[in-house]
Specification:
By secondary structure, the chain is mainly alpha-helical. The protein has 2 domains: 78 residues; 90 residues, no CATH class. The chain is elongated. The two termini are 32 Å apart.
């Protein structure tokens, strides 16, 4: 009985071609994934980020402000003593700064977000609208969805490639 080496060769070439094709597809998907991951932010996502920052910064400041004002509630006599008022009430610090240390940027941000939140937000939104935005900006929701789909596809193809390579090795054939 004659061995059909041509058929064996074609089978090996077919498996090797499948592995090469899978590896090329995986590499292409990885490049696409990198493009999606590094795409510029979408304008609406930046606006939402600023809105959330203004809201959470204001909320944190208001908590500190309430603590500061509670001191005046517990000691009502302080409300008539300007030295006590100046010593314990600061708009930018929300908490008395010991030793006259100037309030930090976070305290100033908190005061601005609390007392001028809507105007501050409106100003940010106008600046954002006036900026040049890249056409390929990708919203985070879409970015996450696409990355998840790409990761699943890469995983599926990687498993197929690994299975072909493992089956070939078991048969004594190296495809690496």
């Amino acid at each position: 009985m004659a061995i059909d080496f041509g058929s064996i060769k074609r089978s090996l070439q077919s498996v090797a071609g499948q592995v090469r094709s899978l590896r090329a597809d995986i590499e292409k998907l990885k490049r696409t994934r990198e493009d999606v991951a590094s795409a510029p932010a979408a304008k609406e996502d930046v606006k939402a980020m600023i809105r959330a920052w203004v809201e959470t910064t204001s909320e944190a400041y208001q908590t500190k402000l309430r603590v500061m004002l509670e001191g005046f509630i517990r000691k009502p006599a302080w409300t008539n003593e300007q030295d006590k008022v100046r010593g314990h009430l600061t708009v930018a610090g929300a908490v008395h700064q010991i030793g006259g240390v100037a309030p930090g940027a976070a305290a100033v941000d908190g005061a601005l977000c609390t007392f001028f939140g809507p105007a501050l937000l409106d100003s940010f939104q106008k600046v954002i609208d006036q900026m040049d935005w890249p056409a390929q900006g990708l919203p985070m929701a879409e970015r996450v969805r696409r990355l998840d789909a790409l990761d699943k596809e890469i995983e599926t193809l990687s498993k197929q490639e690994a299975e072909l390579v493992a089956a070939s090795r078991e048969a004594g054939i190296s495809l690496d």
